[in-house]
Amino acid sequence: IVKHTDRDVNAGDVLRMVDLVIYGSFLEEKSFPDILIKAMCYGKLIVAPNLSMIRRYVDDRVNGYLFPKDDVKVLTSIISKVVARGKLTPLAHQVASIGKGTAANLMVEEAVEGYASLLENILRLPSEVANPKPFAEIPSQLKNEWQRNIFNVVTDARYGSRNASSHLFLEKIERQWSHKKEDTANSTSVKDEEFLYAIWEEQKQTDFFVARKRREEDELKDRSEQSRGTWEDIYRSSKRADRIKSDLHERDDGELERTGQPLCIYEPYLGEGTWAFLHLKPLYRGIGLVSS
């Protein structure tokens, strides 16, 4: 049974149901196709064109089947050999199982080479430390398959005890570090308070001396002889004061006597009818005291 599925469908769900995966793209890829990696990990038989990237990891009739992209008839021949009576042949199952092992260690060499190059570029070791060996000198067994046995110590009880002791050591270091940070923060706050108090005292002394100097200057200014100017300046100043006084319509006793009244008391008139004329001149009302 041949089924066509949408690309949006989960590839894992589809691969679990199929028996055979045919890769139909003839484009040269920069990396091994992800769909083929997933199919091989699920133990499914793959049939793909003999592209350079695919030939790098798939050996024809060993862990998969390859056909030339220019001759599609070979694909028909491959299908007739691996499928019999609607099921995969025993040889096809054997090839698929080998492909599953290949997928488990796929791209180990590229990963090891990439990490080795990364470490060479970012690590700056001191002169007394021996430089790491180049990638070409790494043993082939470390580049052909993942060294999963290294991680088996995770389940070891002794590793658990070492892990617990490591946690205790880290907790001890963290407590010491936190106490040091608290002591540093407290000492810093005390130093800040002392510094601010010193600045405040200095500013207080400065303000005191400035006020004292200003007071002494004012006292010396009052005691020193000041030039009053000539008599003409004094006369002009008095006339100017008289003009300002007359402009304000201030009347003294002598001016009241010149009006012909023995005595007259004037006060501003604040009646309602005067508001329209306030912009001209002040209005007065007077009470005259005469014998008649």
From TrEMBL:
User: What protein does this entry describe?
Assistant: Glycosyl transferase family 1 domain-containing protein
Q: Which SUPFAM superfamilies match?
A: UDP-Glycosyltransferase/glycogen phosphorylase (SSF53756)
Keywords (alphabetical) are: Glycosyltransferase, Transferase
- Glycosyl transferase family domain ranges (all copies): 13-86
State whether keyword Cell inner membrane applies: no
Taxonomically, which superkingdom?
Eukaryota
Which GO-annotated molecular functions does the record name? glycosyltransferase activity
Q: Which InterPro entries match?
A: Glyco_trans_1 (IPR001296)
- Among its keywords, does the record have ATP-binding? no
